[in-house]
Amino acid sequence: MDLRKHLRKNIKDFIASADLVYEKKDYTSSAILYFKALFSVFDYILLVSGKGVPKDHSERFQKLKNSFIRFYVLLEKLYPIYRNTYALSVEKPKCDAVRDNVRKLVKEFQIDK
């Protein structure tokens, strides 16, 4: 399977799993899965734009900062929610913010097609 298809499949799978956990009101686990989808969306965008897939979060931030400032700003705004999942619970409004942004990007880049 080529990398584009693999990323698209991962995005769909992460969202489907996140939605199931969200329904059970486990917003921390759901947020983590939505973040995995978000990271994969950004990786997909970078890949199709010819910038290559980053090997880690630091490289992802740098590539987005250099090429897609609006996505860099979005990730910079949301990333503290992800970092906090290691020690704190995520409340529904913060999970919703991640979920809503993932859905917008998936629609914008027609990843769900």
Keywords:
5 helices, 77% helix, mainly alpha, 113 residues, globular, Four Helix Bundle (Hemerythrin (Met), subunit A)
How would you portray this structure in words?
The protein has 113 residues and is mainly α. It has one domain (3-108): Four Helix Bundle (Hemerythrin (Met), subunit A) (Up-down Bundle), CATH 1.20.120. The chain has five helices and no strands. The protein has helices spanning 3-23, 27-48, 57-67, 69-84, 92-108. Helix 2 crosses helix 3 (57-67). The longest helix has 22 residues, at 27-48. It starts with a helix and ends in a 5-residue tail after the last helix.
Total beta strands: 0
CATH T-level fold name: Four Helix Bundle (Hemerythrin (Met), subunit A)
Largest sheet: none
For the record, what CATH class applies? Answer: Mainly Alpha
Q: What proportion strand?
A: under 5%
Q: Structural class of the secondary structure composition? A: mainly alpha
Element order: H for helix, E for strand: HHHHH
In CATH terms, what is the architecture?
Answer: Up-down Bundle
Rg estimate, integer Å:
13 Å
In total, the number of domains comes to 1
Uncertain ranges: none
What is the distance, rounded to the nearest whole angstrom, between the alpha carbons of the first and last residues?
Answer: 17 Å
Helix residue percentage: over 70%
Mean pLDDT: 96
